[in-house]
Design goal:
The protein is α/β, with parallel strands linked by helices and 301 residues long. It contains eleven helices and twelve strands.
Length: 301
């Protein structure tokens, strides 16, 4: 049951779709804003797409994002609670698919040139790339649906990928991903130290690993300087980057989201995404003073 005293709830819960279906009407009635996905999943993806939209000279209609994690010489380690979240997410994917099918929301229209999804492994900008299996695309499209249905905006098509410079790291993660998908539905998969060779532990990353880690997400989009018809004539390349995503950047995303909503007040009430709830320019400005970088360049097609 929702309380009557708070005015905002900031959550790191993943897509937030079930929460939106169950509690949005009640939250609107009580003037409460509930913002889901405020951690590393999926603030940089959702706010990054909004950043590209707001800085595009015209109408942005499609974006591909490429998450590029970086680790230092000390390698990396995954904390057990993070692993548990991933396990729970993947183990419930069938229920989420059924929930979406039963909810039967109208399709979001694709405006302008259709963005073709990329499957399997491919090269982009000299990096190995593959589809990203996290919640980012779902959150981005929730934002785009809201902007289209509530504010009559033109929705952005979105493709979400991961990229790796190291061939060995890419091959390792592909193999690990296959093993993970096989084991995640079994009780054996809930004992990660066994099959991850210590990569996942209850101790988590060391201070040296955290200090050497960083991330960037590159957004490559296109759109129209005038009427949305025919072939696009303008492009944008934007980037969001910062320190270690799991501990340092994630905590900054969450804390600044809470502060921004409480200080400036929510843009909307209800169960919404970061891209809908936050005063985007102010929120980005706060992140930029705390080690999170935003940049973009505009070009012709």
């Amino acid at each position: 049951m929702l309380q009557t005293s708070p005015k905002a709830v900031v959550s790191t819960q993943s897509t937030g779709e079930q929460m939106e279906a169950d509690y949005n009407s009640r939250a609107v009635e009580e003037g409460l804003v509930v913002v889901s996905a405020c951690g590393f999943d999926s603030i940089p993806a959702d706010i990054g797409v909004r950043y590209a939209q707001l800085n595009f000279p015209g109408t942005l209609t499609a974006v591909e994002s490429f998450l590029h994690p970086r680790v230092g010489q000390r390698g990396f380690s995954v904390h057990f609670p993070t692993f548990q979240c991933v396990v729970n997410g993947f183990s419930s994917r069938d229920r989420l698919i059924k929930f979406r099918r039963d909810r039967n929301l109208p399709r979001i229209p694709k405006m302008g040139r259709v963005l073709a999804p990329r499957g399997g492994v491919f090269r982009e900008g000299g990096l190995f790339c593959a589809p990203f299996a996290g919640a980012d695309r779902s959150v981005v499209m929730r934002t785009q649906r809201y902007l289209h249905e509530k504010e009559e905006g033109i929705p952005v098509q979105c493709g979400v990928y991961m990229s790796f410079q190291s061939t060995r790291l890419f091959i390792f993660l592909c193999c690990f991903g296959i093993i993970f998908l096989v084991l995640v539905s079994t009780s054996f998969g809930r004992h990660p130290r066994i099959f991850t060779l210590g990569l996942v532990s209850r101790e988590g990353a060391t201070p040296d690993q955290i200090a050497q880690a960083s991330f960037s997400i590159t957004f490559k989009g296109y759109g129209y300087s005038g009427e949305v018809s025919g072939e696009p004539d303008r492009s944008i390349t934007a980037e969001v980057s910062g320190p270690d995503p799991g501990y340092v950047s994630c905590s900054r995303f969450v804390c600044q989201a809470a502060y921004s909503v409480l200080k400036a007040g929510p843009r909307k009430v209800g169960v919404v995404t970061p891209g809908v709830a936050l005063q985007t320019h102010d929120y980005i400005a706060r992140l930029q003073t705390r080690g999170i970088s935003f940049s973009h360049t505009i070009g012709d097609m």
